[in-house]
Amino acid sequence: MLKLASSFTSELLRQAESGMGYQIVEATLTDNKTKRGIAFNAELLLFDEEPRSIMLSASYSSILESAKSSTGELKSLRVVPRASTMSLSASVRESAGAYGKKTGPAKDAPREKTKADEVFKRFSAYQNDRRVQADGSLLPGSYATTEADAKNVKTGAEAVARYALPDPASASYRFTIRPDKDTVIQYGIVQPDYGQPGGGVEVLFAEGTQPQTVTGPDKIPDK
Amino acid sequence: MRVKLEQRWIKRLLQLPESGMGYQRVDLSLADGREVRDVPVFNAEEVELPDDLTGVRIQDVRLHAA
Fold first, then answer.
1. pTM
2. Is the ipTM of this complex over 0.95?
3. Domain boundaries of chain A, sorted by first residue
4. Which residues touch A130 (CB under 8 Å, ≥6 apart)?
């Protein structure tokens, strides 16, 4: 994490945002290596390999104040064009897309039906997830992921990144969904959004699930 | 700032599909006539609003058309 020198800030302010309040950037370091990251408010650079949960650890101003200066660390900075961002994420989607070769969002995918004994997971920042009803069903129009994809997620912070969740709070409550055979679902790949890479498999239960199909949550580590 | 929605909006949102796991993208009409577009609602109950809008009553909540 680096506090950007004013020359970099000026440069970033001349370029478009990637989303509200942030820019996805490629930084060239003084050793000529390149790294991707997110520049917040054109002044604070968080590299991709650094957990975004850092941003929740203290107030923005104190994080900025304590960040190391970019002077002597960075040679240049460029905002990654949207198309290039998509191209990078496409490679992520390619690996995640092994599941049914899907690459787009679930809402645009054709409707399919679950097989017998299929298991899905849903990550939430809320223990009292309102989409999970008292009878153990999932409301129509709710999202989850496959059991296989959920195995890539060890912490709530990783869930936020993999499923591009807008809430930076750790999604560390994990529900298990065992729908009846032939439940309607749509599979897709989470698109990059909210400064998160996405790339995970998303499953949309357009018609919800039956009573007593959702259990949990169990709690995974926040980060 | 995060604002808790009134029960009637929670009920409405729970009848509408999510935009992703655990959230919905919505447009809001405020009582002072202002419109807020494409803001996330978490768990059908909490909306993230700019600080200057937090005291204004919400008149309508609709899913944002992507």
1. 0.65
2. no
3. 2-82, 97-219
4. B10, B14, B43, B44, B45
